[in-house]
TrEMBL record:
Name by which UniProt lists this protein: Isoleucine--tRNA ligase, mitochondrial
Domain Methionyl/Valyl/Leucyl/Isoleucyl-tRNA synthetase anticodon-binding as annotated: residue spans: 744-899
GO process annotations (BP): isoleucyl-tRNA aminoacylation; mitochondrial translation
Domain Aminoacyl-tRNA synthetase class Ia: 52-688
A GO CC annotation given for this chain: mitochondrion
Domain of life per record: Eukaryota
NCBIfam families assigned: ileS
Family note: Belongs to the class-I aminoacyl-tRNA synthetase family.
Reactions performed catalytically: tRNA(Ile) + L-isoleucine + ATP = L-isoleucyl-tRNA(Ile) + AMP + diphosphate
Key words, A-Z: Aminoacyl-tRNA synthetase, ATP-binding, Ligase, Nucleotide-binding, Protein biosynthesis
Originating organism: Gomphillus americanus
Molecular function, one GO term: isoleucine-tRNA ligase activity
Length: 1108
């Protein structure tokens, strides 16, 4: 049904009344200003850190895992450092004294190579001219120093609150000396030794590598080979199987690394495995595992099986190596537990110089290792004694192919095939590594790893599964190769005599440390190699010594960074960090090296108690693009933190055309550092963090929503002062609910903060702001905040609730979006700016509402997950309104009345009965809740007004029914909801349809009254108005009783501003005065009173004066 536009609707834009509304006014901008950013950054980083160091109670240490100082920061750095910052800020908000000193990892090959590359680009390194060690160290130090400065500035741009005045670097002199002191303790405890054994070796960077310095390429392709070695000493049981004319027999082996065949020193079998002696078509008699025969025959046809033997019967036999049979003689066949029949032939090629298992096996049997490969990954002359055919050939390239050709020429190659598999690569050069035996320094872990595992039992892991990951790495290690063949690092303080034997004692190291303190660490390389001053006096008589050239593994550098934590009284074992927080890859890196070095130190000092350097270990995932792919330049999916802050990852903002097309600037929706921080916080740290345009749009949208919310809060709090305390039980139902919802949000956020689940914090805030606050409470109080008198209880109570909401919202947001929270504070009314969300150690002073207590019944019926919920009624009303709007029956939600027809209370279950009771309790507030002009509750109770006459009297109506669980298990009870055309007129001030039609004068009557009155007499009548019958007064324009009272209060309280408010409106003036005099109010205090009128226009009981 359509509805004609009446004269009242056309007259709504009346400016004189709307100017008296208390619309929120806030200067908080919709976007943060770049010009103000430096000041806010200073306030929330340096100033706040300094303040909390002086005022915080209870030390909290977050020890920084140092980023590598070899380039600009990337999105992974942002994820890590912002997670740390959020953690620290939350602790500050709870009154803790945070100790967070950022560190930087400054040694190692990447920095060295980058520095050298830069020198080449600058033309400072002509081809063929090498720099000296001292020159390399100098440029590496300069490169690292410059990078540290750059990274510091980037971190500060992200609003990282830290002790930026006291950062540490692994290249600092004091740091290096403390590291050497830790190394000395381990030497004294016998935990450091030097040995020739296989290690991961990078030919591309010419240095040994630790497991943590490897990356695994799953797409690596290798050539595997089956070859045969002729047996020399043949077991009798095998010899008896051979035909009379067949005296030759060979062992068939399979290898995935043919380049290691020159280093072969044995063949391994398994005692309890069955082997066959097989006559083949092309390669004579071969020994092969019986379980591998089927696969073996696919490339080497077998004519007959001559017999079966056990692996035990093969042990003790010997064979000849084609490259060194004349120099080394026969080589043994031995038993090994690692032999399986899952692949190959069941006979394993053993090269102790190129495999750890092979090395251990040969150590048990006294077999010397051989590794004929140099630092560059090229074969040496030892690879093929008596021939230089292999010398200088790349083991992973030409050398590998050449070996296969040599075996082919000797008719010893049975078969080759190419396969794809996972293979270790150097994480720096991104090139394949090899396993190669060299003389290296090792830390013995066998004696401390049980203690390290015991220490982990006292550590909290987030997520809990990371305990198993770190434990497995510790369990699998027995030693740690800590030496590197580079120059940019901390030297291993070893002295070598003329025979090449190393000397390293606690006494010799103490002397070297004293020399470093005196001359500086670079003097280790710049002084003459045999300078006697570096040798402890007690050793000088034993001959000249040469200083070693190896440097320590960078994981040992950063692993001993727990030395940087400041000790306090009673911490004889050194302070323990509350938190270590890094990426999941650090289980095999920094977490492990920190734990092992700390346990080694404590063990060396005689501490028996197992203790890790951290109480809580938190790991986060990696950063991936929106499709879950790893970021790389080749993929073109790399995202920088700056792009998130400046908004350039999103489409540009739409702009109005400028005149003459002169303004062609492209603007982006840059939300600054808070956008980057909010992205970090919204990512579940237990999983990889995705980033892309859809997510960033949501982040920016949420930030914009927060700014709009804060803008409204700061505007509505214009006249509020938290010195005015309100008792919780004095609040109306909606206010009490809003307080409880705000507190629940804060409790949920606090709980998530304590569990380091920052994505749940964001989710709790998002849900609260979008649903409970914006869609519910803010909408329900707009009428009383905009329309009611400044200091009326209805308005001040709402402001008290809004103040609590502001404080709770700022508390939970300050760790995540500190810049926004700091900026909003500057736009609070002056009387509220004493409250600082970052520095309020005592909240009681600023609490506006006292005696807050639970109201489970009220909260229950506002729970959207319950079947009997007010949300269901709210949703039904909104759907009916949308239907009416589509038929152009109404516009604003105030343009309808609502009738809710309730069945007998006995027909509901307990929760449904609770809903009915709360609905009746909240009946005076339902119109505000649903943002309509009037709400009427009816029921089957004969004492309640019937539904039908109400609906029949309306110009149009819309109806629906919702079902609520009933006492019967199979039935639901209906609640009928109707919206209909308002039966009264629209107030020109509050826009509610609450003005009785009979008191509004028609246009013709207004004209007649105007002609009969004196042109000069338009002022308010001076006669007493106490006896005026408002119900018979004719109003020139429709104004409701509530607004009449507020307008009269404004006119009498502020005559200089509103003295002429009623000029030309004698009817309104008389009605307004009657509202005042009828209540017995004085002119001076009328604005302090709250006049409430029920939905039928009857005056309710007056509330207490605020001054009481």
């Amino acid at each position: 049904m359509s509805r004609d536009k009446d004269q009242v609707t056309k007259r709504m834009p009346a400016s004189w009344a709307s100017k008296t509304l208390r619309l929120p006014k806030s200067l908080l901008p919709h976007r943060a200003s770049d010009a103000n950013l430096p000041g806010y950054l200073q306030a929330v980083t340096h100033d706040l850190y300094t303040w909390q160091r002086e005022h915080g109670k209870g030390r909290f240490i977050l020890h920084d895992g140092p980023p590598y100082a070899n380039g600009d920061l990337h999105i992974g750095h942002a994820l890590n450092k912002i997670l740390k910052d959020i953690t620290c800020r939350y602790q500050v908000s709870n009154g803790r004294q945070v100790d967070f000193r950022p560190g930087f990892d400054c040694h190692g090959l990447p920095i060295e190579l980058k520095a050298l590359q830069k020198q080449k680009e600058l033309g400072n390194m002509p081809d063929g001219q090498a720099l000296s060690t001292v020159e390399i160290r100098k440029i590496a130090r300069e490169s690292a120093s410059n990078t540290v400065k750059l990274q510091k500035e980037r971190f500060k741009e992200w609003a990282i609150m830290a002790d930026w005045q006291n950062t540490w670097c692994t290249m600092d002199k004091d740091y290096e000396i403390r590291q050497l002191e830790t190394f000395k303790l381990m030497i004294g405890n016998g935990q450091i030794y030097r040995r020739l054994k296989p290690v991961y070796w990078s030919p591309s960077t010419k240095t040994a590598l630790a497991e943590a310095e490897l990356e695994y390429n799953s797409d690596h392709r290798s050539t595997a080979a089956y070859v045969k070695f002729p047996l020399h000493e043949i077991p009798k049981v095998v010899r008896d199987m051979l035909p009379a004319n067949q005296g030759l027999i060979a062992a068939a082996i399979w290898t995935t690394t043919p380049w290691t065949l020159p280093a072969n020193r044995a063949i391994a079998v398994k005692r309890n495995m069955e082997y066959l002696v097989a006559q083949t078509e092309f390669h004579g008699v071969l020994v092969v595992s019986s379980s591998r025969l089927a696969d073996f025959e696919s490339f080497c046809p077998v004519l007959s099986i001559l017999g079966k033997i056990s692996g035990q019967e093969l042990v003790g036999a010997t064979y000849l190596h084609p490259f060194r049979s004349t120099t080394n003689g026969p080589q043994p066949i031995v038993h090994a537990d690692f032999v399986t029949d899952e692949s190959g032939t069941g006979l394993v090629h053993v090269a102790p110089g190129h495999g750890m298992d092979d090395y251990k096996l040969c150590q048990e049997h006294g077999i010397e290792l051989l590794a004929p490969v140099d630092d560059a990954g090229l074969f040496t002359a030892e690879a093929f004694p008596g021939s230089d055919i292999l010398t200088g050939k790349d083991v992973l390239g030409a050398g590998n192919k050449l070996i296969l050709n040599i075996f082919q020429s000797a008719n010893m190659l049975l078969h080759t095939h190419t396969y794809r598999h996972k293979y270790p690569y150097d994480w720096r050069s991104k090139k394949p590594v090899i396993i190669r035996a060299t003389r290296q320094w090792f830390a013995d872990l066998s004696g401390i790893k049980d203690t390290a595992l015991e220490a982990l039992a006292n550590v909290k892991f987030v997520p809990s599964g990371s305990f198993d990951r770190l434990s497995s790495f510790i369990k699998s290690r027995s030693e740690w190769c800590i030496s590197r063949q580079r120059v940019w690092g901390v030297p291993i303080p070893a002295l070598y005599d003329q025979s090449g034997e190393a000397i390293m004692t606690t006494q010799s190291i103490s002397h070297i440390i004293s020399m470093i303190k005196e001359r500086g660490i670079d003097a280790w390389w710049s002084d003459d190699p045999t300078e006697p001053a570096w040798v402890d006096p007690s050793l000088r008589m034993q001959g000249p010594f040469t200083r070693g050239k190896d440097t320590m593994d960078v994981w040992f550098d950063s692993g001993t960074s727990w030395n940087e934590m400041r000790s306090e009284r009673g911490e004889d074992a050194g302070p323990i960090a509350d938190i270590y927080l890094e990426g999941t890859d650090q289980h095999r890196g920094w977490f492990q090296s920190s734990l092992l070095t700390k346990v080694a130190q404590l063990t060396s000092m005689g501490h028996r108690a197992a203790q890790a350097p951290f109480k809580t270990l938190i790991t986060h995932g990696f950063t991936l693009d929106s499709k879950g792919k790893k970021m790389s330049k080749s993929e073109g999916n790399v995202v920088s933190p700056a792009q998130i802050m400046d908004g350039t990852l999103l489409p540009p903002l739409k702009r109005k055309d400028q005149k003459n097309g002169q303004d062609k600037r492209v603007l982006y929706d840059g939300m600054g550092p808070d956008a980057l921080r909010l992205w970090v916080a919204s990512s579940d740290l237990t999983h990889d963090a995705l980033i892309g345009e859809p997510l960033l749009k949501a982040i920016n949208g949420f930030l914009a929503k927060l700014r709009v919310t804060y803008k409204l809060l700061t505007g509505l709090l214009d006249t509020y002062d938290f010195a005015h305390k309100v008792q919780f039980n004095e609040l109306c139902g909606l206010d009490r609910l809003a307080v409880l919802q705000s507190r629940k949000m804060r409790e949920a956020a606090d709980s998530a903060y304590q569990e380091y689940a920052y994505h749940r914090v964001v989710s709790a805030i998002n849900t609260y702001v979008g649903a409970d606050l914006s869609a519910f409470y803010i909408e329900s109080i707009k009428d009383r905040c905009y329309v009611d008198a400044d200091y009326s209880k209805s308005r001040t109570h709402a402001q008290a609730v809004l103040w609590e909401i502001y404080r709770n919202l700022s508390h939970v947001l300050s760790p995540i979006t500190p810049l926004l929270v700091a900026e909003v504070r500057d736009y609070l009314p002056t009387q509220l700016q004493d409250y600082d969300p970052f520095r309020s150690l005592s909240e009681d002073r600023y609490t506006s509402i006292q005696g807050i207590c639970e109201d489970p019944d009220l909260e229950a019926i506002f729970n959207p997950n319950k079947g009997a919920s007010i949300h269901r009624i709210w949703d039904a009303i909104k759907q009916l309104q949308e239907s009416a709007r589509s038929e152009k029956l109404m516009g604003s939600s105030l343009g309808c009345d609502v009738t809710i027809h309730l069945p007998a209370i006995s027909s509901f279950d307990s929760h449904g009965q609770l809903l009915l009771r709360i609905l009746h309790q909240l009946s005076p507030e339902l119109a505000d809740l649903f943002v309509v002009s009037k709400v009427t509750l009816t029921s089957t109770d004969p004492n309640q007004p019937p539904l039908a006459p109400i609906i029949q009297a309306s110009e149009w109506t819309k109806q629906t029914t919702i079902l609520i669980p009933s006492t019967a298990s199979t039935e639901n009870s209906p609640i009928e909801i109707n919206i209909s055309a308002p039966k009264q007129l629209k107030c020109i001030r509050c826009w509610k349809y609450t003005v009785p039609k009979e008191i509004f004068a028609s246009a013709s009557q207004l004209a007649s009254d105007s002609n009969s009155s004196s042109d000069s007499d338009t002022s308010v009548p001076a006669s007493p108005l106490a006896k005026l019958d408002v119900n018979t007064t004719q109003l020139e324009e429709p104004v409701c009783r509530r607004c009449l009272g507020v307008l009269e209060g404004l006119r009498t309280a502020e005559p200089d501003v509103h003295g002429d408010l009623f000029n030309g409106r004698p009817g309104i003036a008389q009605a307004a005065a009657a509202c005042r005099d009828g209540g017995g109010l004085d002119r001076e205090d009328i604005k302090l009173w709250d006049w409430n009128w029920d939905f039928d226009g009857n005056k309710k009981t007056k509330r207490t004066d605020l001054s009481d």
